[in-house]
Design goal:
single chain, alpha+beta, Chitinase A, domain 3, four-stranded antiparallel beta sheet, 16 helices
Length: 431
């Protein structure tokens, strides 16, 4: 992939050389990749835009959606590339870096999520016509942009217990959840009355088209200026307390499939659709009572020695020695060793997937084979099982997350909007 300055330099040389060549020779010169946008001191090339559009087109087709006009699709995809480029630039300026190891781990995660190996992922990417090196670079840029947004979130104040209490008492929080989509027509801060009137006219026309039967997802892809436009404007599941008050008031009485009148927010003018609704469910947690022995490798005990020691302890338990006595003597789990390895009632997922899977596979009274986690080597004995209603605790955690998510959405939206408005961006698409 060309660097910005090199690509501009090469394009200039190509034009200069072509003017000196005879006509017949000029016809044999392959066209140089063109620039479709200048973003501060960087550029976006036509090849980058075409590759991004191909991916979006494939996804829309796979979802069975209608394809928007090519010029609108180019505009939407290019704006997304511009915003990502700005985020990467800001991340670099603020010292955020992504190592090859970070990208390698992200590739492993992508492969695992799709149930394939890393080699198979490489084959899939190349078979679809995308250069694997470009895929790696794009993934690295996405990681940088995500870390920049996370830095914005981390700078926010923590949620107080009083805020959680207020949210739990609100009717909006307890009144179920809404699956939402949106169409956004942006209105910049400080826009002139004429610009506001033009935005209002656009959103009114979109609303009329929806009333006349235009598909909402199609309208979002074609006309929305939000970051989720190419996903059909999908916001996802939200309770009414997690969205702005004007949004909550607009969708509260809507049924699935219905959409709102245009709504004004600091970002612009929105049309919201309710895709589905659901009531909050009670939350039940599986809890296990367990005894535990852990051997942790350290400077004096290697991983292999820890494995051999836990196997010896397991053999002694099978030979009839008391689990509790061996836990007191050998276990490195400081929270349970002194009480014979008794962990009490636990939610096993708190100790990792491996620990949870091992406990779930045991019967009461049964002792596991030695197994390894990041904490060391373990033997666990399951002594009880129950289902517990943890709805109150879950709702409290959900309220905390909802408040944080609402703040994060607002902060990130404001951050990106300001960054975009202040940046030098020259769009060079035809028309």
């Amino acid at each position: 992939m060309y660097t910005p300055r090199i690509s501009t330099y090469l394009a200039t040389i190509a034009i200069a050389v072509s003017t000196l060549l005879p006509t017949g020779v000029q016809a044999q010169v392959e066209p140089i990749d063109s620039i479709v946008a200048l973003v501060e001191e960087d550029v976006i090339l036509r090849s980058e835009l075409d590759t991004a559009i191909e991916g979006i087109v494939e996804r829309i087709r796979a979802q069975g959606g209608g394809m928007p006009p090519q010029d609108l699709l180019e505009k939407q995809v290019l704006e997304r590339l511009v915003v990502r480029k700005l985020q990467v630039q800001r991340a670099m300026q603020t010292g955020i870096r992504v190592s090859d190891a970070d990208i390698d781990q992200a590739l492993v995660n992508v492969a695992q999520q799709n149930g394939i190996s890393l080699d198979q992922l490489r084959q899939v990417i190349t078979s679809e016509g995308e250069d694997f090196a470009d895929f790696r670079q794009n993934l690295g840029e996405e990681i940088m942009a995500d870390r920049l947004r996370q830095r914005v979130v981390n700078s926010m104040d923590p949620v107080s217990e009083t805020e959680i209490d207020i949210m739990l008492a609100s009717e909006d929080f307890s009144g179920g959840e809404y699956d939402l989509s949106q169409i956004l027509v942006r209105v910049q801060d400080g826009a002139t009355p004429q610009a506001v009137a033009e935005a209002q006219a656009r959103v009114d026309q979109i609303h009329t088209d929806l009333e006349n039967g235009m598909d909402f997802d199609q309208a979002a892809i074609s006309y929305s200026e939000s970051g989720d436009a190419l996903e059909g404007g999908r916001i996802g599941w939200r309770d009414l307390s997690s969205i702005p008050r004007e949004f909550a008031d607009a969708v509260r009485d809507l049924q699935p499939g219905q959409f709102s009148e245009p709504i004004r927010s600091p970002a612009g003018l929105h049309i919201l659709r309710v895709n589905d609704r659901r009531e909050r469910q009670r939350v039940m947690a599986e809890e296990y009572r367990a005894n535990h022995i852990q051997i942790t490798p350290n400077e004096l005990v290697s991983a292999r020695e820890a494995m051999e020691e836990i196997r010896t302890i397991h053999d002694r338990i099978e030979d009839g020695e008391d689990f509790a006595e061996l836990a007191r003597e050998f276990s490195d789990d400081t929270t349970s060793a002194n009480i014979g390895g008794d962990m009490g009632w636990i939610i096993p997922e708190q100790f990792g997937d491996r620990f949870a899977a091992m406990l779930a596979g045991l019967e009461d009274g049964e002792i596991s084979e030695p197994f390894q986690t990041t904490e060391g080597w373990h033997i666990v004995q399951r002594t009880g099982y129950r289902e517990t209603d943890v709805t109150d605790q879950a709702l409290r955690n959900m309220a905390r997350q909802t408040i944080m998510q609402r703040r994060a959405d607002s902060e990130i939206e404001s951050f990106i909007r300001q960054m975009r408005e202040e940046a030098y961006v020259d769009i060079r698409l035809p028309g």
